[in-house]
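Priority: medium. Attachment 1 of 2:
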């Protein structure tokens, strides 16, 4: 049974981990007066390093708005957001862009690979923005692609790869800067069930290696691959410590 504001016990090991995400009473409003939309209302939760969390809810529940704030793609109307124990709530866009590139690895439903670039060149892009020397870019890109079993596709362009292979390249791009968090937005939405399971297994492997994973999804079967589920409804958190078995 789902209970509001349920708090699960945290082991002493988990308590010693640093906080990657902390939202304190975050609100996000659009419009005003008669057109006011309360997309998020007093949202608070914490995600610690090495956690694997799914943010789940129906369309219009607030999960996508929350993801945009966690990803430093949007700012809250009120409240505070700490990313890796740094208050990013009121940062200028220029500073937020640096934070996004260095701290967060994004994975999207539609991959967002540049069609004119090879797999290796796509993975090198975040490092180019971070001013990493070119030789190091290539070495790290190859290592990241090998990590997701795409070392044999270094020179292939997106149109020469399947959807699952493109998503693996996108995951390699997301991890190449060693971010503190992987943020995945409906990462299996364009994949068949077999490929979905392969990508979920890869996420599990990355999390087991120490990477914090936050995944936004509306699919219960996908959310069950995580360790903890944060459930949204009508712009508020219905439960922030659901286990996969609770779905």
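Attachment 2 of 2:
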């Amino acid at each position: 049974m789902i209970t509001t504001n349920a708090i699960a016990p945290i082991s002493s090991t988990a308590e010693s981990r640093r906080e990657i995400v902390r939202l304190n009473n975050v609100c996000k409003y659009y419009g005003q007066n008669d057109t006011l939309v309360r997309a998020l209302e007093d949202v608070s939760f914490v995600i610690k390093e090495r956690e694997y969390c799914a943010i789940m809810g129906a369309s219009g529940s607030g999960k996508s708005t929350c993801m945009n704030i966690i990803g430093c793609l949007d700012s809250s109307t009120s409240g505070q957001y700490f990313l890796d124990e740094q208050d990013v709530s009121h940062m200028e866009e220029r500073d937020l862009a640096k934070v996004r590139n260095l701290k967060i690895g994004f994975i999207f439903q539609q991959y967002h690979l540049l069609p004119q670039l090879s797999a290796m060149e796509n993975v090198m892009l975040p490092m180019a923005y971070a001013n990493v020397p070119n030789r190091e870019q290539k070495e790290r890109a190859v290592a990241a692609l090998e990590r997701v079993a795409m070392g044999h596709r270094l020179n292939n362009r997106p149109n020469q790869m399947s959807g699952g292979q493109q998503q693996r390249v996108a995951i390699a791009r997301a991890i190449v800067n060693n971010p503190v968090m992987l943020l995945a937005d409906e990462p299996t939405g364009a994949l068949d069930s077999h490929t979905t399971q392969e990508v979920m297994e890869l996420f599990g492997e990355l999390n087991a290696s120490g990477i914090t994973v936050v995944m936004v999804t509306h699919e219960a079967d996908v959310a069950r691959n995580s360790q903890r589920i944060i459930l949204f409804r009508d712009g508020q958190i219905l439960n922030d410590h659901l286990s996969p078995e609770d779905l």
